[in-house]
Design goal:
This protein is of the alpha/beta class. It folds into two domains: about 1-195, no CATH class; about 205-325. About 60% of the residues lie in helices and about 5% in strands. Residues about 1-35 have low confidence and may be disordered. The protein binds zinc ion.
Length: about 325
């Protein structure tokens, strides 16, 4: 379900308040080595309490729906996401779906297959960390603080995967869940590594706002794509597009049209057009991932990682020097 997978970075990039102060440059080789291992201390925890509440105790939700959205670990992040992205909640429809869980006899609820899947993920938490942390850290600066991220597996939300602040909410129905966690956890690391520069104001710097979406989504997509051997994602529709040259060129043209017109759009039109082209049509994901792949393969991992601190304009500039003619990006000038 592409439109909803979509949505992740916009909340995380707007709410860049992750790990406090920017990291200072370190000259000491010893400190570098220590920092290099720091990211490996990251921990991604799996939490299925929201799922358990929906399946086992739906009556407690139906008693006070607003309180659940305010207080449940997964749904309070969903509330932030809906508000940040101007995406309305369909609470009436949602409540109707929660009500179907309340119709299930209590003694049958613990055999719900979604609950079984959630418990299976929870049992696999340590094994996931063993493989995923090293992979994610290989695409992040050595000095990054360890990720401390909770993945909330939840049911019945409108999105399939989002990162909000340092945490992740994932729809339990998603078959590609573990691969998506790599993508979402990378957003957390990326935003941390940017050093808390604050959100990019789309009214002040529309092209910069687009560029950060492109870089953040592109790199996260590339990192998760590279994890496909470990965490298969056969249903992930982005990956066939990423390896399809015609699709890449088509989306590159769409992205360039957005960048070329961005300054002439009203804030509302910019928001809706960027959402349509960048997110729903997947231009941020596919073109951005190809950019990351190109830099990684032609200049090396360090050059790719450096673009995080150098910023999205440098990401585009570095890529354009390597890009085939029909895949060059309109270089956004400072506003
Ligand atoms: Zn994303």
């Amino acid at each position: 379900m592409r439109p909803d997978h979509a949505t992740d970075i916009f909340c995380s990039s707007v709410l860049v308040i992750l790990f406090g102060q920017p990291l200072l440059a370190e000259d000491s080789a010893i400190r570098q080595a220590s920092n290099a291992s720091a990211c490996r201390q990251s921990e991604i925890r799996f939490d299925i309490t929201s799922l358990e509440t929906v399946i086992l105790r739906p009556e407690t939700i139906l008693k006070d729906v607003d309180a659940f959205w305010r207080e449940d670990g997964a749904y309070k992040l969903m509330s932030v996401w809906h508000e940040t992205n101007d995406q309305p909640r369909n609470v009436e429809d949602w409540t109707r779906r929660i009500n179907t869980y309340a119709q299930v006899p209590v003694e049958e609820r613990s055999s719900n297959p979604l609950l079984a899947l959630g418990r299976e993920f929870k049992r696999g938490e340590a094994a996931f960390n063993d493989k995923a942390i090293a992979h994610i850290c290989s695409f992040l600066p050595a000095g990054i603080k360890p990720l401390e991220t909770t993945v909330y597996f939840a049911a019945e939300q409108q999105t399939s995967g989002i990162a909000v602040r340092r945490n992740i909410v994932l729809n339990i129905r998603t078959q590609e869940a573990l691969n998506m966690i790599v993508h979402e956890a990378y957003h957390v690391g990326f935003n941390s590594a940017r050093g808390n520069p604050g959100p990019v104001d789309r009214e002040v710097d529309p092209v910069g706002w687009i560029a950060i979406g492109l870089q953040n989504e592109g790199m996260a997509t590339y990192v998760a794509f590279r994890a496909s051997d470990m965490f298969p994602a056969p249903g992930m529709e982005d990956y066939p597009l990423l390896v399809d040259p015609a699709a890449r060129v088509r989306l590159c043209r769409r992205l360039n049209s957005l960048l070329a017109k961005a300054k002439s759009y009203s804030p509302d039109r910019l928001q809706s057009t960027a959402w349509r082209i960048g997110v729903l049509e997947r231009a941020y994901y596919i073109v951005g991932a190809f950019m990351a792949q190109t830099i990684d393969e032609k200049l090396g991992r360090q050059a790719l990682v450096q673009t995080i601190s150098e910023g999205p304009r440098a990401f585009i500039h570095k890529y354009n020097a390597l890009a085939p003619q029909d895949m060059k990006i309109v270089e956004p000038q400072s506003s």
